[in-house]
Amino acid sequence: MFAHLGNGLPIRRFMEHLGSVCASPRRAACALANAENEMSNDPIVELAELQELGSVRVLDARGIGAFEQGHAGRAVRVPIEVWEPKARSTGAFDDIGFWQEEIENLRIGPALPALIYDDGRMIEASRVWFILQHFGVQAFILNGGWPVIQRNFDAIEAAPLTAPAEAFTAQPGAGAVHLIDRSALKGWLNTDVGILDARTVAEFDGADLRQNSRGGHLPGSRMLPHAQLLEYGLVRSADALAQLLADAGVDQGAALVTLCDAGGRAALAAAAALRAGYTDVHIYYPSFSDWARDQSCPVVHSESIDVGQLSA
User: Fold this and answer.
1) Which domains does the chain have, with CATH numbers?
2) What is the pTM (predicted TM-score) of this model?
3) Residue 179: is it exposed, middle or buried by C-beta count within 10 angstroms (0-12/13-18/19+)?
4) What is the secondary structure of the chain as a DSSP string?
5) Segment 198-246, tens digit of pLDDT
6) Which end of the chain is less packed: N or C, by CB atoms within 10 Å?
7) Which DSSP string do the residues of 60-93 spell out, in sequence order?
């Protein structure tokens, strides 16, 4: 029988049924957004740290089939099949009314943080996290997702579903990770801004076009495939991520932009950068698929410029 982790359920009760899977306690990163600033920006929560969150709204970012086969009790499913294509459509994040309604449907309020899990790949949970935090929701990602939940508890009596005391109002741009568009990113080429590409080697080199008309990568971008951010199904520690980013040539003291092909892996890279201690993090959403469509945007492969001028 699958365990139940209810929305509004104090996580301390949940933790009574768990063994520790984290070596060190989390700093006070779980305070509400209007609390004191002495906190980590790390949005990724280890299973053993959940007790510090208090009550949360549990969100399931998997497909409907997986959700129906088993889920945390009283978890609210995010309609990822709607959110994913919407988020990569033109002007998606300017459609505040759409996102206001979608977030209200999740019954999230200012005083009730969101805890998001997915199938363990961490991509969809990161996508949902980025969208929520962009509009002002305090959101966290459960490291390891559903597989971790399955392995670590048996049964919990679900608490009553309680609505947030205050209505939610979308506040675009309120999150720790900022949205950047194509035009702004073009202006950041050939500057000190770090551009981190979370796609695969084949995508970065231009061998795998996916559904794009052209392949390659942005001039000056650094590659760190998203799979390297994970180890044994978990996002790596802050120290390990900091080393990976440094090895990729990304300066922690400079602004950082993450990208992938359509946004999800870029969101995971952005969350990982926050965990690693980066503080000026931006995400280019919907990423390379948007860049490749604009023929004025330069693309590099095999050490040569494919299209456009770096000053364009």
Assistant:
1) 11-152 (3.40.250.10), 177-307 (3.40.250.10)
2) 0.84
3) middle
4) ------TT--HHHHHTT-----SS---STTS-TTS-S-S----EE-GGGGGGG-S-EEEE-S-HHHHHH--STTPEEP-HHHHHHHHTSTTGGG-HHHHHHHHHHTT--TTS-EEEE-SSSSHHHHHHHHHHHHTT--EEEETTHHHHHHHH----PPPPP---SS-----TT-SSEEEE-HHHHHHHTTSS-EEEE-S-HHHHHTS--TT-SS--B-TT-EE--GGGGEETTEEPPHHHHHHHHHHTT--TTS-EEEE-SSSHHHHHHHHHHHHTT--SEEEESSTHHHHHH-TTS-EEETTEEEES-TT-
5) 999 999 999 999 999 999 999 999 999 999 999 999 999 999 999 999 9
6) N
7) E-S-HHHHHH--STTPEEP-HHHHHHHHTSTTGG
Q: Which two tokens stand for residue 22?
A: 């984290």
Q: Which amino acid is at 10?
A: P
